[in-house]
Amino acid sequence: MRSGVVQIFEQSDAIKRLxxxxxxxxxxxxRELIQEGHDVINLGQGNPDLPTADHIVKALQEAAxxxxxxxYSPFQGFPYFKQAVADFYKREYDVDLxxxxxxxxxxxxKIGLFEVSQCLLNPGDTALLPNPGYPDYLSGVALANVTHExxxxxxxxxxxPDYSKISEDVLQKAKLMFLNYPNNxxxxxxxxxxxxxxxxLAKKHDICVVHDFAYGAIGFDGVKQPSFLASEGAxxxxxxxxxxxxxYNMAGWRVAFAVGNPSVxxxxxxxxxxxxxSLFGAIQEAATEAISGDxxxxxxxxxxxxxxxxxxxxxxxxxxxxxxxxxxxxxxxFPVPNxxxxxxxxxxxxxxxxxxxxxxxxxxxxxxxxVRLGLLDSEERLREAxxxxxxxxxxx
Length: 396
Fold this sequence. Notes:
Layout: H1 13-17, H2 22-35, E1 41-42, H3 54-64, H4 79-93, E2 103-106, H5 109-120, E3 126-131, H6 135-144, E4 147-152, H7 168-173, E5 174-179, H8 192-205, E6 208-212, H9 234-237, E7 238-243, H10 244-247, E8 256-260, H11 262-275, H12 281-291, H13 296-318, E9 331-335, H14 342-353, E10 355-356, E11 358-359, E12 370-374, H15 379-390
Parallel strand pairs: 1-10, 3-4, 3-5, 5-6, 6-7
Antiparallel strand pairs: 2-8, 7-8, 9-12, 11-12
């Protein structure tokens, strides 16, 4: 057999525009330390540590035995799941949805957030992105080859964008805006009044709003987080994306939905008709079970995160790290000590304390000066993480 030289094929320009995948790089170093035998406390990624509820797993098991689910699902999903989504939004947020025209099913919201730029933007268009923000907003915009402008999320403004600081020229050019509350990475929360202002701005400038509601159910201190779509006129100007990954501990199941403006939903469905058929039918049945009926178990999960939040905040304050308790999400966004950049501090914690946190600059330039910690381990391990950090003597 004659062997030849392996040809290296050049990547497309679109692939070259993609930014480095932040979490992939972080995960690689964590795996190396574990392989070296270190006991690593990983608070750096957003992967829920608790299992999916038993009744959801049982629903999947039973549905997997049905022959109808062994075939291709309908391209845009089974009507029963889309109706369940509409019922869920009415029950939880008093938002009316037409399941046939205002609901699109997705393989997790990550793909949906990526797809929407391909659906609505052309080269030369402008998208508004939060800074700091979830890195994959930028990935979708980069692949679409469009211009982006950042909206600063500053602590003094509650990590909400100040629309009065965005120039009229930028607003006139903008076609798409990404928002995310409760916010990853800052843990900031929004109010209905803020969403009302967002709707008014979007209507004035013909901007489509995409609200990433991944942590919608995870609010603390008795405060329920508002849906963007609950603001009057929101469906006229945008959509909301809701994933089951966080609220229901279903990250590996890859199931989510977009709801809202019919023209945007139609375009997402059209793109997905070419990319996929639809979600495995058994997952659609299990997801329907998850969002239907008594959601007491969701409130119990939020209680667990709130207790973890309190343990982490109290433990860090005891070692001298002055931090504020997050109001939502299962993340905490804390300032680094004087004399360190975000990357330097995160590396120190990783290499010396074997505690993984996400460096704030990985979420944008305005993430510099912060690190993100996940409430994704037991109270005992969170206390231990604080003790390890305290032994470094940084906060004396």
